[in-house]
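User: Structure tokens for this complex, please. No commentary.
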Amino acid sequence: MSRLQASKPSVAALLALLVAALGASAAVQFAIDGRRASYNDAPEVLWIPSGKIMKRLSLGHEGLVADIYWTRAVQYYGGQRRDGKTDFNLLGPLLDITTDLDPYLLIAYKFGAIFLSEPSPRGADDPQQAVRLIRKAIQANPDEWRLWGDLGFIYYQNLHDYPAAAAAYLEGSKNPKAAQWMKVMAAVIHEKGGNRQTSRFLWTEIFQSTEDETVRKNAIEHLQGVHASQDIEEIEKRIAQFRGNHGRPPRSFDELIADGLIGGVPTDPLGIPYRIDANGKVLLDPKSKIRLED
Amino acid sequence: MTLTSPTLAVARNTFREAVRDRVLYNLVAFAVILIASAVLFGQISIGIQKIILINLGLSSISVFGLLISIFLGIGLVYKEVDKRSLYALLSKPVRRSQFLIGKFLGLNLTLLVNTFFMSAGLWAALYYLTRGFEHGDRYIFVAIYFILLELSLVTAVCLFFSCFSTPVLSAIFTFLLYVIGTFSSDIRAFGELTKSAPMKVLSTALYYLLPNFSDFQIAGWVSHGRPVAGSLILLNTMYTICYGAVLLIASIVVFSRKDLK
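Assistant:
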């Protein structure tokens, strides 16, 4: 009995052992994380590529499974962008399965089309697939006039197919619930084709019609791009004036300021000054994250 | 077949016995936690926080309700025979049909109470997320009602198998019938596609013979705030009553001929 009592470890010793074991397991896990990184680079696979089969397998819970697939599509898109990858091969099938499972999940069509149509590296650079997705949405949700707007937007912004864009806006405007601007857009695009004001209006409409932060941020980035393009166009007009007066391009903005052509050094929407190259061409600063819009 | 006092006494007793089961509370608690987790789950997606909450909530109520109805349903008759408490009960003025109907009603009452608590969890999570309710949200009640109808049919199926089979086999049969019942529209579609006349007749017969659980699945629809027609509510209620009666009568026929010695 006394031998047993003598060998009984104290609570403090046990706790110390526990903490040591926990620390050791954390250290080992850290080592595993380093070695596992390469295994995690294995390409993602869609084990069941058919929405119809998934619908059967969901045993009546297709709404929930659709939500899971949409979340997976969002995570996949976000993950590829985060990792700087330009391959979005799974995006189309994931969106197809999502919308097969829940044909009324408008958000998946709308933002899925944006993910698909955005040029690389922002998106999959596949506007044709985006058009197919939106047409599928229109077929399943014929009362949703905004989908025609989304279709027109892809034709306008990504495919630069202005007659098709005007036709899409016009078709959507036939819905009695459609906003007046749909008809206006159809007329403007039909008459003028692509122009910056139309792009600004369309991105503003996207910005105002969504509550999602990711999409709002994307719309803001595009609006900043439109704004910067307009700035550059305006500054280059002043440079042309300078060239007319001096027979050469300005070496810096100071010369334009000195001539009273501009009030100060112009900055892009992020507050970073523009630059002038040797030929008098206005450029974004390399540090600026803005992408110019056509 | 009337709801006399012995039937109600058995129903009350079945309910009391069921609510004493700790597994039941665990399942309900787990369902409520799952529903609450939908609030977090929606944050890793885009624009579907509310939709995912409704879908996950309704699916949790349905799946956990199914588990509860199967795990309690399979022992409804078997346990009474196994524990020999049935002999004491039947020595009193209680008919076998009253015993079965009482068991069925008791389990339905248990499911009603469980569904109530799980639904309360769903509504609370929905209120937490949206800080108010919209007009279309009322159709969630219809989806919950359809889940209850579905669970009632599952209970009737379970009771039927429980009359002549062991609990494990009853659970397997019920689950398989549930799976087949969710595919019933495919069975009919298969018959319509085939060129063989006997196959067409067989698939049509199977379509009407097997319980059609897909009728009750409208969670995806109501998650978008879309309305459900009153006629569908009425027809689904009538279908449950009619098909439930078929299963109860079949159970009574089997159980009344069962040799309990």
